[in-house]
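Slide 14.
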Amino acid sequence: MYARMKLIFMRKVGVLAGIAVVFLIFSGNSTSAQQQIKVNVSPSVSASINGQLELDRKKYFNLAASSSEINWNIQDQTRFDYYFKDLEMTVGRQLGLVYGETRWGNGLREDAARPGYMDIAFFKSKMNPNDNGLDALKGIFGNRQGLVTHDRRSAYPDFMETYTKSGGEEEKYPTNNEAAAEIVAHLLKYKYTDFQRPSYFELVNEPGWRFWGDQRFAEFHTAAKQKVDEMGISTEIGGPCYSVSYFYRKEYDQLSNITNFIDATNFELDFYSFHSYDYMKWDESAKDFTGSVSSGLPLDGVFDALASYTYNKFGKELSFIGSEHGGYITDPQNREDALNALADQHFPGSGFEHEMEKRSIDNFIMVNSAIANTLTFMNHPHIVKKTVPFILLESSRWDPYYYSSLLVKENFDKNSDKWAESKLIDFFRYFDGVKGRRVESFTTDTDIQHMSFVDGNTLTMLFHNQSNEEGTIDIDIDDIGNSIEELKIRRLGRGNDFRPVFEETTLSSVNDIQIGAQESIVLFATYQNTIQEDDIVDEIAHYAAETATKFSGSKTFTVQIPDHKRAKYAIVRVGLNRPSGASKDVNITLNGVSLSVPVENAADRITQSDNGYSTTKIIKVAGRFLKESNDIEVSFPDGKSGGVGAVVLRAAIMGQERVDVVTGIESHLGQNFIMYPNPADRRLTVKTSKPGEIQIINLTGKVMLTSELSQGSTSLDLGDLAKGSYIIQFMHMDGVSSKKLILK
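Slide 15: predicted structure.
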């Protein structure tokens, strides 16, 4: 059973920033997250993040392949057009820069006059790159394919002296960083055409943990960066390309695994990188796949913590590359047993097609995690340069059975000339057509990853449920004087047999739209006319001075917002990690006001015995509650310890100072209308000095009544409104006036 989603079209709540009072909820205690999911969307209000407004698809929706691989393997024009024209796939990842030349090339030999160094003249004589067969892809991708390349461990030629670590002897790196950097730079400059040259290069793919704190390993990276810059090569250099993203572990103490590398390179690299995976297994007692989940809320906290660290120490936020991400079953035997058992139970059969159906269970795990990661990346566009889900084009030449291949040779026969497409295609199908400018959109339920974009006359709303609970979503869309002509919904969920279910339908109404456990939805609302941009805000991140802070009881963090008077609203973001046995309750106050901080329905799913409970608390507050210096107190009611990765206020800065609607205080334009009696019973008389529109707004920010007024006296019937406090807002040609109203 799925729950129900209802779409409510709501008139836009005035022009005042102060209406954001709807988002500040006063609460003294944490409560369980409800599956009644409230969403507010303002299609005409653009909302950039640190200046990043337009969705750059090349950052996120990438195939882990190069243009050359595509040229070799996709000869079917129909498939080519579908992937790269219809779905707008782009390329993202290639493995083996130095390793490929060392093992299969013929250009690296030692310079007799410089022992341990490459023979540069000989190398240049062997290089003759070309773009043969790539014209079609050049026409699609432009002047550069935009690839991330990373190298294997122990990639350098035998004539170079290397070092290793005790217990990790199979992994070796050059002792002469200058000589190694020379190889990297010359390969990047002469081995590629301008189109094929990697845009980004990570020196090592997933180095072993023994090298993480090694100063020589860090200097290896800075030497390569300096040489590439010296030779005027446009490729950006970064690392360390760690294999994990769970730097929230041990109450954020493990953030130092990557911040130590940042320090050791003096923050001089072009970007910093790691891979982000969910490590899953079949749990017979739970009758489900469980494991170490880093995607979504935990990863949000890591990004905030790293950005906070570099901003506070070096004066700017880091840039990030994620050359691999997703989720998979880590134990091959557990994977085989689980897929066989589920297939026998739900869809018994045999043969190649049946094997592909079994693989689709595994495919859903990869795609589901990749979507959660990607939505997190999309929420940090000012940091992210490029991310690539670990979806390979094919693997037939080295492992026809490999779990993460989009295309599989028929019958797993590497000599077959027929391809079968796996359900990994669902990642690209889910994001098909998602484009445009980011618009103001928010949900109070952090189980749901959500964002909205506008392109022309289309409003696109994305939802991903991180929990195993079904839910009802109520969407309030501002009335922009432009009617919706068509609604389409796209769903990617998991069936009872654990296979993916992908559906696209056109809606005749907005009733009975549902979201299920771990389901992803895209809702397209096509308007009659182009959606105009009436306003714009820029959500600018402001950080507390502390990063990766462990404490017991409570701690106060201070965040400075110099432009607080121009903030329409702010997003409070607090990354947390607590030991698995500790309470998941947390209290957060902003400038002395208690905020509502529910425990997520996904809390158990993102809690593991070794990783603890890791999440990011995300709360929207009205701009009028901000100050130049803001105190955010985080406390653990059980008195036990916990770690805070970072405390961030993303303040939505407007072009002009905010005009606040403050209960009990009239605006300076209040003389433009008077009202009586106040308190009122059933009827209210309003006298205005000019024509305009009046709105009665409850303290959750919802417009309860709207009326057009001419100059003079108007009587309003309030009989349908409940007793309590309201804001009366009068909008006219000279501005907006507001007063408090009490109904008795």
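Speaker note: Confidence is low (pLDDT under 50) at residues 1-34, 661-671.
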